[in-house]
# Entry
Amino acid sequence: MYTTVALVLLFANSPQDESRKDVPQPQQQGTPTDPLFDKAYVATDEPAFVLSVIESTRQGELDARGAAETLSKPELRDAATRIGRQNGTTRARLEVLAKAKGWRTPAKNPDRASTLPVGKESRTAANFIVQQISFHENTVAQFRAQLNGSGDQDLKRELREALPGYQKNLELLLHLQP
# Structure
């Protein structure tokens, strides 16, 4: 056992370990990031992108509807209603586009359940805000990446029309209080 401890201490204090301190760590807006998971979004093939967005907006509609029914503060209910409406509009427009292009759409899921954790009023409100901020940040980043690609112009038009709504919702969420 003493040999193992001595080896661990030997390696922990080795010059090799000191040299690693000078290796610059990747950062995003001043915060260290994980190079394996914190990669910038890039445009992907349109059918797969649309399939993913339709699925996530369906879930977003359900979560927003549940929040609007559960939360008691009017400003939170209004935000949930607005978010649900944005997700519904985006989903419907992308479903029409996918059908026109012959792209697959996800099957309906009648057993879909809300992903919003429900507890005490203040905890549910905080969960809703945090969950929606994360969803909106990812959605905005994915839409921007897809817009920067060299893909389908009809899809880009739909994304350009939807993006301001998600940006406004994100701004609203960042100022909400549970």
Remarks:
- The chain has one domain: 46-175.
